[in-house]
Design brief:
The protein is of the alpha/beta class and 418 residues long. The chain contains twelve helices and 20 strands. It folds into two domains: 157 residues, Lyase, Ornithine Decarboxylase, Chain A, domain 1; 242 residues, Alpha-Beta Barrel (TIM Barrel), CATH 3.20.20. Bound molecules: pyridoxal-5'-phosphate.
C-alpha cells in the first residue's frame, strides 16, 4: 500500500494525514487513494504484452460512482451484476460497449434495461436464463451477444465462501449442459453465443487455477467443433492481494499463462478484477470509544462495526490494523477489537497485538477498499460510513455519512398507526 504510508509516525493517504480526514469527515470513514486505483489498473493492463484485454472492473468490489468514473476515465469497462449496478455504470458514463452483466438471477426488468442500454455481453449462467434473455430480446426486436459462463469444476485454493467454479457452486454451467445449449442454440435466435465466461474464485494466490480452467475450457471448445463460433474469452476476476503475509501470484506469470492459451487462438480477452484494483487502495478508519478489561481479556471498542466492514466475521478475513498515530514509548498490547453491535460476531480482530490505545484515538484497518463499503448495511440502525477519495494533497468527500433521516427513507407509517 505505497500510497498509504507513515510520515513522521502519522498515517497518510497520498499527501493527506489520515487524522485530518477523520477530523474533517468524522469516523468511521473509508479513505481511498486515487493514485492506487490508477496504478493497480495500469499494472494489470501492462502485464499483458501480446494482447490488450478489456478490463471490466467488478463494480461490486467498491461501487462508489466516483471510483467507477475514475476507472472508466482510464479506459476501464465495468462488470455488473444487477440493475442497480447498471444504473451506476450509466451514472459513471461508462460506454455501454464496455459493460458485461453476470449473475445467476437476472430479472426480466434487468435484462430489458441492459438490452436497451446495448451492453457488450450478458454472461449467462443457465439455460432458463438464456431462454429469458432470448424472449426479452425478441420482444424488443433485438439480437444480443452473450457469453456462456462455464463452471469448469477446478480447485481454486481459496476460502470456501469465495470459490465459484466447483461443481457444487451455484455459478456457471457444467460442460455437459453447455454442450446441450450449443447443440440447440438455434432455438434461441435472438441471442448469439459469442463468448465464454469463467470466474474461478476470489482472492486466488496461484496462477494454476486460471490456467487449469482455461485448458479445460479450450478442450471443451475444441470438442464442440463447428457448433461453437465464439470470439471472446472472459476469464473473470479473482486475482488475490496481500492482506497479511500471503504470497500472491506474479502478474507477469498470470498474464503470460493466459496469453499462451488465448493468443494463438485469436480470441479477444476480458478480465473482471475487483479486489485486485480496489483492495489495497482503501483503508477503514475508526475511533476507539472504550477500553474494556474483563478477566483475562482486553477489548478495544471502536465506533466502526460489522455493518461497516463485514469481512472479518463473514469470511474470517484478516485486516492489518494499525494506529493512525504511532506514539513513542507505547508498548504493544493484545486486544480483541470489536464494534458496538449486539452480536458476538461484531469484531474486526481477536487477540491482535497493536500499540496500546486509548479512547478517542484512531485505528486504521488496511486493505479495506474491496468488499468493504459495498457490503455495508444499516444493521442496528447505524448510518453507513462516509467515503473520501484522496488525490495528492486533496481529500474529496465522495459519499456523506448517512443521517438518521436516511435510515427511515422509504419506510411507511400506515394511517391506522399515525
Ligand atoms: C463474475 C465475477 N467477476 C468478477 C468478480 C470479482 O472478483 P475479484 O474481486 O476477486 O476480482 C466476481 C466476484 O465475486 C464475480 O463473481
Amino acid at each position: 500500500m505505497q500510497h498509504i504510508h507513515y510520515k513522521n509516525n502519522e498515517l497518510y493517504c497520498e499527501n493527506v494525514a489520515v487524522k485530518k480526514i477523520a477530523e474533517r469527515f468524522g469516523t468511521p470513514v473509508y479513505i481511498y487513494s486515487q493514485q492506487a486505483f490508477i496504478d493497480r489498473y495500469k499494472e494489470l493492463k501492462n502485464a499483458f504484452t501480446k494482447i490488450t484485454p478489456l478490463i471490466c472492473y467488478s463494480v461490486k468490489a467498491c461501487s462508489n460512482v466516483a471510483i467507477l468514473r475514475l476507472l472508466v476515465k482510464q479506459g476501464a469497462g465495468l462488470d455488473i451484476v444487477s440493475g442497480g449496478e447498471l444504473f451506476r455504470a450509466a451514472r459513471a458514463k461508462c460506454p455501454m460497449a464496455r459493460v458485461v452483466f453476470a449473475g445467476v438471477g437476472k430479472t426480466p426488468d434487468e435484462v430489458s434495461a441492459a438490452i436497451r442500454h446495448k451492453i457488450l455481453f450478458f454472461n449467462v449462467e443457465s439455460e432458463p436464463e438464456l431462454a429469458r434473455i432470448n424472449a426479452v430480446a425478441r420482444s424488443l426486436r433485438r439480437t444480443v451477444n452473450i457469453a456462456l459462463r462455464l463452471n469448469p469444476d477446478v480447485e481454486s485454493h481459496t476460502h470456501h465462501y469465495i470459490t465459484t467454479a466447483k461443481k457444487e457452486n451455484k455459478f456457471g454451467i457444467d460442460f455437459a449442459s453447455a454442450r446441450r445449449i450449443f447443440a440447440r442454440q438455434g432455438k434461441y435466435p435472438n441471442v448469439r453465443i459469442k463468448g465464454i465466461h469463467l470466474h474461478v474464485g476470489s482472492q486466488l494466490t496461484r496462477v494454476s487455477p486460471f490456467v487449469n480452467a482455461l485448458k479445460k475450457t479450450m478442450a471443451f471448445i475444441d470438442s464442440l467443433g463447428t457448433l461453437c463460433s465464439i470470439d471472446t474469452i472472459n476469464i473473470g476476476g479473482g486475482v488475490g492481494i496481500v492482506y497479511d503475509q500471503e504470497r500472491t501470484l506474479s502478474l507477469k506469470e498470470y498474464a503470460a499463462g493466459i496469453e499462451r492459451i488465448i493468443v494463438p487462438r485469436g480470441y479477444d480477452l476480458i478480465l473482471e478484477p475487483g479486489r485486485f484494483i480496489a483492495g489495497n487502495s482503501g483503508i477503514f478508519v475508526t475511533e476507539v470509544q472504550y477500553v474494556k478489561k474483563t478477566t483475562g481479556k482486553r477489548f478495544l471498542i471502536v465506533d466502526g462495526a460489522m455493518n461497516d466492514l463485514v469481512r472479518p466475521t463473514l469470511y474470517q478475513a484478516y485486516h492489518e490494523i494499525v494506529p493512525v498515530t504511532k506514539r513513542r514509548g507505547r508498548k504493544a498490547l493484545v486486544y480483541d477489537i470489536v464494534g458496538p453491535i449486539c452480536e458476538s460476531g461484531d469484531f474486526f480482530a481477536k487477540k491482535r497485538k497493536v500499540q496500546e490505545m486509548h479512547p478517542d484515538e484512531l485505528l486504521a484497518l488496511k486493505s479495506a477498499g474491496a468488499y468493504g463499503f459495498s457490503m455495508s448495511s444499516n444493521y442496528n440502525s447505524r448510518g453507513r460510513a462516509a467515503e473520501v477519495l484522496v488525490s495528492g494533497t486533496r481529500a474529496h468527500p465522495i459519499r456523506s455519512r448517512e443521517e438518521y433521516a436516511t435510515l427511515l427513507k422509504g419506510e411507511i407509517l400506515p394511517t391506522h398507526l399515525k
